[in-house]
Amino acid sequence: MKRWKFFLILVLIFGIFFGVFYSLNNDKNTYSSEGLNIKNSKSNMDSEINKIFKELQVQEDKANIISGHSTKEKTVALTFDGLADSENTEKLLKLLDEYDEKATFFITGMEVAEEASIVKKIISSNHEIGNYTLSAQRNMEDLPDDEIIRDFYLASNSFKKSIRKNPKILKCNETEYTDRLLEIIKACGMDNVVESTHIFNHKSFSSYEEVLNYTKKIKKGDIISIKIGDYIGEKEYNSSIREEKPAIDKKHTIDKYKKVEILDENEEIIKLTKWLLMALRENGYNTVYVENLPNLYYADTYRERPVATSVSNTKKIKATSPKGCKKPRKVEKNINPVLKNYYVKLRKENKGETSNVIKHMYTTDTHIAYVIRGVKNQGEVLKLLDALDKIDGKGSFFVTAEEISNYPDILNEIVSRGHLLCNGGYGKNRRNPSLLGFSEIVYEIDMGEKALKEFLGKDFNSSNKYYMPLYGDTGGYVLEAASCLGYKNTIIYNRNPVRESYKNLDADAIIGEYFKNTVALHRGDIVYFNLDFFEKKGISGDLAFKIFENYIKEANYEIASIDNLINSPLVYTPNLDENKRVANLIKESYDYESTKLQYLIENNYIGNPGINTIESLIGFTEEEIEHIDSIGRIDTKGEKIIFLTFDDWGSDIAISKILNVLDKYNVKANFFIRVGYGGLDYHKGVLNPNLLRAIAVKDHDIGNHTYRHEKVNISREDEVAILQKDIVIAHRAMAEYIGDLNSFKPFFRPPTLAVSKLGLETVFNTGFNYIINGDFSTQDYEAPSVEFLVSTFIDGINLTDRKSNVNENTDEKHIRKIQPGSIIVMHMSDEAKYTAEALDIVIPYYLNKGYRFEKLSNYLDDEFMGDRHGIN
């Protein structure tokens, strides 16, 4: 090479290095407790990174770690960490196609930006891609939070800009997944991280025999990774479970022979991959995408347990590539070639669409579904049918083609009693459906439908077109196959008392164990029964009846067919993105000035007659207390109006009883929701969203009563952040389900009614219009009887002895009575067991006295502060 050319190359290398160095240093962020403080920049990138950091402050969720785990089938996941050049990537893809195996390619943000066409080729070849961070930096757990967030953000942004896809699965190079790192990964929008079981590179083996011997030690469910263009670090050996290690290689140095070394290295990678695929085949292993590996983790347990990764009913998945375990092609040779070609055509026309998974319905309808498998024992079927007749319920039976052929008489009996028959598959396969090839699972569903159509004849219609995969397994090709055959919905279940440990128990013992922490079932629940499972006779019938009597009947709910459950007009779709505007109207702080907060406390805090002293209003002076409300009523200008309010949360039984009484008298009320409970992880969200929405659609006001019942009578600055976080999370959790309804109000009820100056300032600063206590606290959760509670409502509260009712000897000045404008404080918890029954007496009593019952929003400003500030 001529000297001037050599000099020019050096100048170019130096220029590139200096440019990158300057860019990175000029774009750094500084870290503060308030998030990323971006200096001298208002770019969209900085804004997005700042949002991620702030989200991290309130979330408690972490990314899941996918690591090697035992599976029943001989299945492993294969990954390539890093990207080869175009020519050698083509060779890898050709090898994978030749051996009919699938792989996950972990690619850095820099690689996808430079080689987008190669990455698109990988995707079009039906392989999975994952995020390998921005530049595969090692030891990321040691970096500051802001640097990690920036790395992940830039990597994700590179994927979105280059290929319009953003992988939700991540792998970090030689990095320990600490809890903090997992929290950051989740906040950055990635759900899963991968931890390999075996890690190789181009120097790991020198012969096929070595690879073959090594793969004999590989366990089912292991994750095998091949590093491209990189060395294996010592930490990666330490985390491996291997008994023997390939030789550690030194990191390559850059010299004039670099080009030759890279070519040799790529050739070695191709050779290693071929050896590995040959050895896996010889040892009987199949490969799955690494993200699909958890679908198979339950294979060693009793198979009636549903697969853990099933999605909820309204979530639509776009299948950009077939997923799941590929079985050897010889298995599918038994399918008629003409039929198989037809399935291929269907798949092409389907364009990767997938069936919705229904495991629980988002609905406010008072329906629950019983889904049933197994009809070979006629006696068991008849006992279940008799039980359903007793409770006036309609079951949904998922029957196989084999059962239709073998037991037509009992199926006729099921239909004659008004129950639904649906597709349970062909019935010949007993393996997990996710382990079937595409044509196999399509055939399984297709044969089930053909048999069902032949049996029902002209009575077959859309109400029968639901498919339930064996074991509730929706992994692999199941959802795509169902969609190809026109199945909009695939049914599984969220309540499953069919467990191996219950096989020899009676119904009472099963209920005592499975429902030991359950007070009532929820609207939209789907309960699973298998009539061929239990050893004792009549168990399923007893179980179906007793579940209804104990957990459904008292809430006045019904057992409906799966078709009626799904097609109810009261079905809804939760959508936090669409409700984001409302969700963001409550935030950690609006940073109001002290004069603004003082105004809100003096004008928008509705107090309680018993909270009016320095001791009960911590932080206020006596002079300030004179300006704070302690009456606890609404000024109704003399109109005889009462405001019913309910705090906390309860079961479907407790709350439905209250709603039914309110409906009976066409009365509207106010519900202050405690979203979770003490100690519950915030990421759990709303525990019973259907019941929450049922309150809202009945046009009752809904306010905030915290998430964990955090106290508002705080006195220390360190308690402010705890309260802020709790309130905001509670509000945003509810917004996902009711943010589109006008019932969601900017009203707050303090737990136990206790407040302080700092607590009131904190709550108002989050954006609530009103903090509302009330003048008439019933303490209904301690009422010993209905009669006692009714007397409290009608005769008043005995202030000298709350455990006794007012009587003729009670001094009038020690009695607090309901008056025009009174705010009655009650509870919707199961502990307040007499509240609904008492209201059924008290409401008509006051109606007859000329009172009416109103919502607080009819008398208070219910426009969120954030709306007035133009918050979006």
- Oligomer category: single chain
Under CATH, the topology of the largest domain can be stated as: TIM Barrel
- Tell me the domain tally: 4
Residues in helix, %: 25-40%
Tell me, briefly, the overall form.
globular
Q: Main sheet?
A: 9 strands, parallel
CATH class assignment of the largest domain: Alpha Beta
CATH superfamily of the largest domain: Glycoside hydrolase/deacetylase
Distance, first to last CA = 61 Å
Portion in strands: 5-15%
Radius of gyration: 32 Å
Considering the chains and any ligands shown, give keywords for the structure:
872 residues; alpha/beta; TIM Barrel; 4 domains; nine-stranded parallel β-sheet; six-stranded parallel β-sheet; 29 helices; 31 strands
Would you write up a description of this structure?
The chain has 29 helices and 31 strands. Strands 19, 21, 22, 23, 24, 26, 27, 30 and 31 form a nine-stranded parallel beta sheet that branches. Strands 4, 5, 6, 9, 10 and 11 form a six-stranded parallel beta sheet that branches. Strands 13, 14, 15, 17 and 18 form a five-stranded parallel beta sheet that branches.
How would you summarize the topology of this molecule?
Blueprint: H1 3-26, E1 30-32, E2 35-37, H2 44-58, E3 64-66, E4 75-81, H3 86-98, E5 104-107, H4 109-114, H5 116-124, E6 128-131, H6 145-163, E7 169-170, H7 179-187, E8 192-194, E9 198-200, H8 208-215, E10 223-227, H9 234-238, H10 258-282, E11 286-288, H11 337-350, E12 356-358, E13 367-373, H12 378-390, E14 395-399, H13 401-406, H14 408-416, E15 420-423, H15 438-456, H16 478-484, E16 489-491, H17 507-514, E17 526-530, H18 539-551, E18 558-560, H19 562-566, H20 580-583, H21 594-604, E19 605-606, E20 617-618, H22 622-625, E21 641-648, H23 652-664, E22 670-673, H24 689-697, E23 701-704, H25 718-738, E24 744-748, E25 755-756, H26 757-765, E26 770-772, E27 776-777, H27 786-795, E28 797-798, E29 815-816, E30 823-827, H28 835-848, E31 852-853, H29 865-868
Parallel strand pairs: 3-8, 4-5, 4-10, 4-11, 5-6, 7-8, 9-10, 12-16, 13-14, 13-17, 13-18, 14-15, 19-26, 20-25, 21-22, 21-30, 21-31, 22-23, 23-24, 24-26, 27-30
Antiparallel strand pairs: 1-2, 28-29
Helix pairs in contact: 2-6, 3-10, 8-10, 11-16, 12-18, 15-16, 17-18, 21-26, 23-28, 25-26, 27-28
